[in-house]
Amino acid sequence: MQLPYLSGYPDHLLEQVRTLIREQRLGPLLAKRYPQRHTTQSDAALRDYTMDLKARYLKSSSPLSKVVFDGKINIIKDALGLHSYVSRVQGNRLKAKNEIRIAALFKEAPPEFLEMIVVHELAHLREKDHNKAFYQLCCHMCPHYHQWEFDMRLWLTWRDLDKE
């Protein structure tokens, strides 16, 4: 059984996930652990939510020009969302804008997963690469970052299985 959202995780962990799937316990486990769905449903609400986290943890970082849910993000390729750095020439000057786009399917996600995704994209304002400093910043903003990321990948796996 292929587990595209969990590639890179150790085999013993993947086997535990396969067992949960075979025994049809993955969905109930996730529902018990994450019983609620977040209420951030519009682009304006997502922007407010993101700006609140940014103000709390990254006051001196670059401003954000756009924060939206995007229905065109390929969830397997881009996984969480996109942070883009758009540069435009205006006269003799180069203007740069930071944008965050979150896959629209995360409108249905538990609040913990939305927080983890937004934190991930905000961390890219300071650290462009997924290096040690990047993950330290993610954990500073969201102490459960690694667990929530893994569980979010389980949730994506379960969603795909539920559609079959």
Name its key features.
17% strand, three-stranded mixed beta sheet, 7 helices, alpha+beta, 164 residues
Please provide a written account of the structure.
This protein is of the alpha+beta class and 164 residues long. The chain has seven helices and three strands; from the N terminus they run αααβαββααα. The protein has helices at residues 11-22, 26-33, 43-57, 75-78, 111-123, 132-141, 145-163, and strands spanning 64-70, 81-90, 93-103. The longest helix has 19 residues, at 145-163. The protein is elongated and about 60 Å long.
From N to C, what is the helix and strand string? HHHEHEEHHH
Shape: elongated
Helix fraction by DSSP (H/I, runs of at least 4):
40-55%
Q: Which class best fits the helix and strand makeup?
A: alpha+beta
Mind telling me the C-alpha Rg? Answer: 17 Å
Task: Output mean pLDDT.
Answer: 88
Total helix count? 7
Strand order of the largest sheet: 1-3-2
Strand content: 15-25%
Largest sheet: 3 strands, mixed
* Cα distance spanning the termini: 13 Å
